[in-house]
Amino acid sequence: MNNQLKYYQLTSVGDRAINQDCMAHRVNSEYGLFVVADGLGGHYAGEKAAQFFCQGLFKLAPFYHQLLQDSTQNVKTVMEDWIDAAVDDMRVMFLEDAEAIDAHTTCVVLYVDDNVTVTAHCGDSRLYRLNDKQVLWRTKDHSLIQKKLDEGKITEGEMGLHPEQNQLTQSINIKKNHSAEVNIYPPAEKGETFILCSDGFWEYIKEKDLLQLSSPHSGLDQLKKVAKMAHLRANGKGDNITVQWVRCL
Hints:
Low-confidence stretches: none
Number of helices: 7
Shape: globular
Strand content: 25-35%
Radius of gyration: 17 Å
Helix content: 25-40%
Number of strands: 11
């Protein structure tokens, strides 16, 4: 890649008994791939769903990266096929596990190379794209409160504390009732920052906090500070907190 990537990531259990979030990344000379998944389900089912999805996605990365470099291929279709294949791999890893049917996960995926920025998401794990002055955009949640926001019934700032915050309209599961939403954007520009996170992070984060993370001088210390702030604001009721910070240099 012409542009180098600087990146940090962290995860914590928050106020839960176990951490059902999973995160992973791969950065090489050709591309960067990042993912955050937030498992849903009883016992360890959600934890397995998140882990197996991430494992499947990265196992298949070399093959689908090559397809994305083929100018005859449709980028959106390739990414949709990649996510679909990762779910197939997730099913194989569950084997005959009885919990598999009830094991769900959200996901948010970022793929960047010199030609394109590709995102895929399902549920309410988010990706923000920022420059040092503003939040350029974020992925749109698949949830009841996102619908309320779109209808003008609540504000962006009210989403995290809304009583229906955890009610999703889409999630990843081996039954494939829902598909990830894929979007294609121009290549990352120097100085831009991407934030991938589970809802345990964004619920208690304000726009001014995000802009601290997009400051030219921000890095791991600032990321730890904002994540700790999210945990403190949850006041003992916080979810798992997972976040990845990616800066294009």
